[in-house]
Structure formats: structure tokens, C-alpha cells
């Protein structure tokens, strides 16, 4: 039997809070999704003004961060025509995101969930996702 | 009437075993899929630690190897913007894989199935797929 | 942090073996899928003669057993026009199965995975799925 | 290694011809599809006046006849709310047809392909599909 650690909804809410704080600071209303370690949605929030097209993108980013185990911005740089990973953006029924702003959430080296942010540029989305994870560490005290 | 040769489930299990042995040697837990010559799944295994996003990718790689009759890494190099094959990665309902790690399995010049491996880099996946086919040849004695 | 128990690939293989033994006894070549507790595929096998249309049905049954937490035959009787659950068979992108032969796999009261069997009648599929779970209990000693 | 028998394109054309002859006799322009034993399309024809919505239905009927190994009209009667097989009509990505007019094509007891007819009523479609198979037997001499 495998023993898996998984974000609780209370912990997922902390990630959402961290994203909201940073998005507010940047004045960019964001869509933020948090999934468990298997890529299934735990919590989601579209701030007033967040893009409708970003709802599914944020969810796909969190999914990808959790199950593919790398930031979506990393896959963005691997998924370039002529490189071996090109094509991964159309897998998993189109749910594999290669746009920055999706991150795995780790605790003591194990992935326990994923966070995905969308509505800004890919760089802005990534900044907010990183802030969400930093807030999660600060509030919970969990090590990477 | 056409006469077709097709992997049995026992032969598919040998391919799976070959992939498992190589993946264990490389210490990369893999998803491995084996399809018949028509691209339909015969057997699949996600090793402990294999990526969830690699489940469908491995299946798609095996499908593509069997039915498009080339290694998926070959299509990766053909499917580049400006080349004539660009766009093939979004065909077949998104199931045409152009990421290395999918191979046709041939016996006496005829394709009898496909094998697909995913969870490492495209190069690692291809190494494991090749090892699966080599193990299949060694254990069955079938010629290419 | 939630603590989750999940089938290992070795334990999933025991479920597959149990299905294979019963299917062989009944002389019905089956498709059998085993998923983890989140519904993601761990292992799959189509016996020689198993139906091609049953590949995805077996996977969907295992998914449903694991994540909807009831046997798919239970949903079959709930999903009847005029009853409140009617319509659930078209949810989850069409992957929610209401055909008997999908079961949750529990250990000490917690769902650790799902098993799905297809190629016979719904009743035959359920018999084989139950045999798979019984074999799993016998070989592992895990309580329900 | 499994030895499979599969319709050649010449034999598939005979099935199409049989359907065309009967459809002409009935004065119902039909869509007719012929697949191989794995459910993959070999040949298709929409007669002048055949319904556009019947293109995919005919293909799905032929697929189902071949891979689920029963006439689609048989599944129609099994797939009734409260019966164990209810729900099968939404499986296989919606490609499992339960509307009469799809039949397996057998030779010496083995399924070698499928034929699907659509544009009339389910009963008319089945009559034409049966005529296609009868024509195939008459012209080829193959036993059931």
C-alpha cells in the first residue's frame, strides 16, 4: 500500500489566499485553481474581473503542475518545435498546460497538490503562483 | 481475406516486462502501454511513481507506433512548422503522439503491435521502449 | 495534510490476476482495469478475445468504482428515468459508468482503488470483479 | 502470435455493393460504412440523398457491430433503463451505437469486419445491412 500526502481543503484555501493577496497587490484580477496531488480540483476562485477564458486554463495549469511535476513554464521551454517534448501541449485531452503559472506544491519532497493561475501574462501568472506557494510555506511551516 | 498477425496478451506481457526491467535499471518509474497492430490497448502498467499525465501519453505513443508505423521520435522531427507533416500532432482526436518513446513492434516485417513509454524525457522513454522490443526479441526469438 | 492509502502496482497486479483466474474459469476473455483511489489507471489487461469496445468500458468502470465509491451496478439501478440520479451516465465526459462490473477496492474502510471488468454481460462482469477483490483480500490479508 | 482474418478492401466493396442494391430497391438513399474486425473504417459511401447526420451514425454502427460483436439492434433491446446494460450507448466516446443497422461480418465463426447502414428507420437500416451481408456471402461463398 502506498502512503500519499494530499492537501486538505484548508491548506488549499491558504494557497488561494496567497494568490489573491499577490494578485490584489499587482492589481490583476486572477483565476486561481488548486488541485490535489492527482490533479483533481480542490478549490477555485475567479476574482471580480478575472478572465472567463482563464477558468479552464488555471485548472489545467494546476493539474499539470501536480501530475507532470514541473512548473508549466518549464514545459513551455521544452515544448518547442524540433525538441523532443514538442507535442506535449496537445496531450491529456488538451489539458496539459505549457503556459507559465502552474506549479507543483511539495512538502518534504513529495508533491501534495498543484496551483494554477491565469488572467495576466504568463510571467505575471507565474509570479502569483509562486507567491501562493510562498504564502503556503509561511503559514503552514511545511518544508519543500 | 487479409491474414493479420497480432500480439497475444502473453507476448504483450513480455514487452511490458522488458520495459519494467529497463526502467528499474534506470531508476525511472514509467508508464508503459502495449497495443495490438490496430492500435487497441492490450496491456498497461504504471509503475509506482509513474506520472499520471503519462498514462494517456504512453497509450497514445503505443497507438501511434502501431498504426502510423514509425517511431514517435521520427514524427517529432517531421512535425516542425514549415515542414509538410506539421500539424499531425493534433490529428486522430489528439491521440497522434510525436514525442519519442513509441515504437511499432514488427515480426518478419509486419507490424504486430505497438509499445509506448512515458514518464522520463523523450530520450529516456525511447531507450526504455527499445529495451522492451529487444527483450521481446530475445525472449520470443521473433525476427524483425 | 490528508493521509491517503493507495494501491501499489504490485497490489493492482493481484487484482488483475484475480480477474484473470475467474474469467478463465468462466471461459469469458475479459478486459480488466485497475485504478488508484483517484481513478487514474494503474494496470490494464485485455485477454486474448476480450472485446475492443470493452477497453474503455473497463477503464471507466474502475474509475467510477474508485471515485464515485459505489459498485457501478448500484448506479445502474439509480440511473433510471424519473429517479433523481438519472443523467449521471453522461457526466464526467462520458466516463461515469453505470454498467455492472466496476467496484471500489477498500482497505480498512478507505477506498484505495477501483477495479473494472468488461466483455461479458453486466452480471458476468460483476462476478469477475468481485472475484478479483476476493482474491486481493485472500492474497494480501487486507480487511474491508 | 494471434492469427486474424480481416476483410480486404475488395471484399468491403462487395458489402457496400450489396447495401447499395438493396437501398436502391427500397428507394432509400443510404449511408453505408464497412470497418475491419478492429472497427477501423475500410470503405464508406453516402448515396445521393443520404442524410448527413447518418455519416457518423453509419460509421459508429459498423464499428459497434465489429468490436462489440452483436447487431446494434440487439444492444438496443438490452440498453433499456433498469436493465444491466443501460448506459452502454454513451461509452466509447459516444461511438457505441445501439440503433439497428450495424452488424458484425463473420467468416467461419470469426468476425472479420462490420457493416453499418443509416438514413432510413432502424428497421430499414437493418434490412439493408442484412442484405449487404447476404450479398457478401453469395458473391464470396464464405460461410458464417
TrEMBL record, chains A, B, C, D:
Pfam families: HbpS-like
InterPro entries found in the cross-reference section: GlcG_carb_metab_protein, PduO/GlcC-like, PduO/GlcC-like_sf
Stated name of the protein: Uncharacterized protein
Amino acid at each position: 500500500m502506498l502512503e500519499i500526502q494530499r492537501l486538505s481543503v484548508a491548506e488549499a484555501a491558504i494557497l488561494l489566499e496567497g494568490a489573491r493577496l499577490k494578485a490584489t497587490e499587482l492589481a490583476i484580477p486572477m483565476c486561481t485553481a488548486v488541485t490535489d496531488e492527482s490533479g483533481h480540483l480542490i478549490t477555485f476562485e475567479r476574482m471580480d474581473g478575472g478572465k472567463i477564458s482563464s477558468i479552464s486554463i488555471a485548472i489545467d495549469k494546476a493539474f499539470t503542475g501536480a501530475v507532470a511535476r514541473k512548473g508549466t513554464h518549464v514545459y513551455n521551454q521544452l515544448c518547442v518545435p524540433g525538441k523532443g517534448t514538442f507535442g506535449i501541449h496537445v496531450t491529456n485531452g488538451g489539458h496539459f498546460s505549457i503556459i507559465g503559472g502552474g506549479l507543483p506544491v511539495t512538502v518534504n519532497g513529495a508533491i501534495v497538490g498543484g496551483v494554477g493561475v491565469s488572467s495576466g501574462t504568463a510571467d505575471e501568472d507565474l509570479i502569483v503562483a509562486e507567491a501562493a506557494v510562498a504564502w503556503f510555506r509561511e503559514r503552514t511551516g511545511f518544508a519543500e
